[in-house]
């Protein structure tokens, strides 16, 4: 294969991509990678969401014809359907979908913690509703449109904790009572997303739609130094992921570079799950 051909299969010049949860921490990473590869991108998020500094910086750098913000609550099918119509009118029918929207549980203040035996089921259900049910609804609506047209790539953003249980020792230096414990709802919902990926990959493969999961390991942000040291000692590559580590794997799954790849969980975790 020539170098030109290798470069071309990673391009998304004729694609319209939808990214959910686009205004948050990882959303801008996916949006920027897709735009850099040539796609036009619809950035979906709640109307009440405040754009992160990274998203605002992206808006300042990108031509307005390449990036279109759309209000959408992924847990409400009617708003997803409305968002799809707006995207189709403004940019064209989507050919790439990145299901990124989700709820996580960063280490928090002691006043908002619960012991697992006392965790309100409403909090568990809320995380499942967004991370799993919301992913299903967007896939059902936007992925279904792709399937009806015979072309598309869906990338569901999973997590390291879709494959392994959280190592609670990462957090045992945090003070407070009750102690911080990563909720069971997060990993459970992300593991379910991996299975949902396989379901749609096998269902829609004959219709030209590929469906994969991309599962990042821990991504460096504002974690405290002791956490960073503990986490790095657990990773063969010795560090947390940087945002720059993630765009390439996404473009691979979104583009024709992965034309014969569907139903997988691509773990971008620095080797964490190799041990």
Give the secondary structure arrangement, pairings included.
Layout lengths: L2 H7 L6 E5 L6 H10 L3 E6 L7 H9 L5 E5 L5 H14 L5 E4 L21 H29 L2 E6 L26 H21 L4 E8 L8 H9 L13 H8 L10 E4 L7
Parallel strand pairs: 1-2, 1-4, 2-3, 4-5, 5-6, 6-7
Helix pairs in contact: 2-8, 4-5, 5-6
Walk me through the structure.
The structure is a single chain. With 275 residues, this protein is α/β, with parallel strands linked by helices. The protein has a single domain, classed as Rossmann fold. It has eight helices and seven strands. It has a seven-stranded parallel sheet, with helices on both faces. The mean pLDDT is 95.
Looking at this protein, list some descriptive labels.
275 residues, alpha/beta, Rossmann fold, seven-stranded parallel β-sheet, 7 strands, globular
CATH superfamily grouping: NAD(P)-binding Rossmann-like Domain
Strand order of the largest sheet: 3-2-1-4-5-6-7
Give the % helix.
25-40%
CATH topology: the name is: Rossmann fold
What is the CATH architecture descriptor?
A: 3-Layer(aba) Sandwich
Tally of helical segments: 8
Strand content: 5-15%
Task: Let me know the average pLDDT.
Answer: 95
The ordered H/E elements are HEHEHEHEHEHEHHE
Number of domains: 1
Q: What is this entry, summarized?
A:
This protein is of the alpha/beta class and 275 residues long.
